[in-house]
Fold Copper amine oxidase-like N-terminal domain-containing protein.
Amino acid sequence: MNKRLQGFIAGLLVCCLILGTTVLSAGVTKTIKAVFNQVTVKIDGKAVSGDNITYNNNVYVRADKISESLGKAFNWDKKKNTIIINNSNFENQRDVVTFKSYRS
């Protein structure tokens, strides 16, 4: 193969890689419109400290702030992508909530 053809093929491959990466990353990132701190969250009449987000008629509140308001211990297992909320006095009794990532 002559050098011009090799250069053309190499350039074509680089362009395909760059364009392919751009297309793949477009599915991962999404811009949304959400309302910040629109609602007051209360547990047993006491306001929960911390921020919340309202998006698509759902309210998202930090799990650590909810567990703190309930008097529970909060732990995050990064390897298992799991939030663990324990009763403060009883380490063996626990509620486990698992959050899975999704792409829309």
DSSP finds two helices and eight strands in the chain.
